Amino acid sequence: METIDVFAHVLLPEFYKRMLMLDQDLPKKQPFIQNPLLTNMELRRQHKKAGVRQVISYVNLNPEDYMSGKTAALLTRKANAELLQTVQENSDLFAGGVAMLALNNIDESLQILDDFVKVHKEILGVQLFTRHLGQSVADPAFKPIFAKCAQLGFPIWLHPVFDERKPDNNIILSWEYELSQAMLQIVQAEYFQEFPDLKILVHHAGAMVPYFSERINRILPEYLAKDFTNFYADTALLGNAKALDLAAAYFGCDHMFFGTDAPLGVLPAGATDEILTAVEEMAVSQSDREAILYHNFAAKLYRK
Fold first, then answer.
1. Which of helix, strand or coil describes residue 74?
2. Which among 70, 74, 65, 61 has a CA at the least distance from the CA of 29?
3. Tens digits of residue pLDDT in 226-252
4. For the segment 22-56, what is each residue's pLDDT rounded down to a tens digit?
5. Which helix (H) or strand (E) segment is 276 a member of?
6. pTM of this prediction?
7. Quick check: 234 and 201 in contact, CB under 8 A?
8. Are residues 162 and 169 in contact, defined by beta-carbon separation less than 8 angstroms?
9. What domains sit in the chain, N to C, each tagged with a CATH number?
């Protein structure tokens, strides 16, 4: 049985060149983007884990933070075209891609969903970040994106970014907080109530939410607490079978997908081996394990 890694990353060469033209200090500001496997697909092939293909999305660099809405949308389109071409030319490595949007141009982002994502079956959905333009992803300005994704049946991959207002951001804990906070904001905006077909896949096994589930259940109204279980989650915890058991017990094995954050986390190529071992050690049935590794992807994300 093939295994599908639903949350792996790239920083493709042409897009990276354009972003460096906007900010030549990006490698210093975000050292993790210096990993050559983000850009070099032949090098990535050399480190490929047998039997595993990836769904790729861009690392958290977004043109909307550097330019006006019209220009950001144009660069986003070019980045998406490069992503599509990479998936098509490397089907041995990749099972699909996830499109980027520029949320300082909502009209054009909605158009990308219609004339790019809808048209190309290799593109499985879109990636949003926990904050856009300094605002929560659940800010009303971005609501049309959620509505359109629900209407078209396109999942949203939710990835963390730092809240730049905070002086103590760190790669160990901050992103998990930002993911959890964004999940709370989406629930409190009642998007799952308004858009019952909405699919949101959260990185890092749902972050803090499974651990604090009883706080959620006792503090929020029952209908909102229940909405947290509508999220989907990946396994990108760099291992830790017991934490994955907790996530699976909370979200349900049918809402769990194998994901690694590759090639990040464990050098040089990511934590695929570590997370595969953790999934094998989970206290779930073999059928649930196979669902996490492949069948949930085939049933819920793959576009025939």
1. helix
2. 61
3. 999 999 999 999 999 999 999 999 999
4. 999 999 999 999 999 999 999 999 999 999 999 99
5. helix 272-281
6. 0.98
7. yes
8. yes
9. 3-300 (3.20.20.140)
